[in-house]
What does this fold into?
Amino acid sequence: MTRSPEVTSRIMSHVRNRGTKPELALRAELHRRGLRYRVHRRMLGNPDLTFVTPRVAVFVDGDYWHGNAWRTRGYPDFDSYYGRGENGAFWIGKIRRNIERDNEVTEGLRADGWCVIRVWETDLAADLAAIADRIETVVRGRPA
It folds into this structure.
């Protein structure tokens, strides 16, 4: 089945990239713990959460768009999951570029003195408290 680029564009425009359920759950848990943050601050990579004074940037990465879905869905490797179907080469290239961009953003922020924390949506779903513990430890442990 092949759909027109216009239909694909309309579908993709409805995919949420902020305010997702995993992100909202993490925000609520961190706020409950007394941590205050900025949401989607305009800076390199547009982190989901930013703790400005300790310079901590948090990204909540969706499994599909950031290249982890093959692991969570039991596929043997990246290519066997993203390479399925007629447009496999396109998706492999697209997701690989997303991964490269994530690495570039992480390196750039670290070079500017930021601590970068990336969490997978499935890890948040599995153990929100553990992820929040990790973030809280880093935020409270960095100099103000």
Observations:
- The CA atoms of residues 34 and 40 lie 19 Å apart.
- The domain at 28-141 is CATH 3.40.960.10 (Endonuclease; Chain A).
- Residues 88-111 form the longest helix (24 residues).
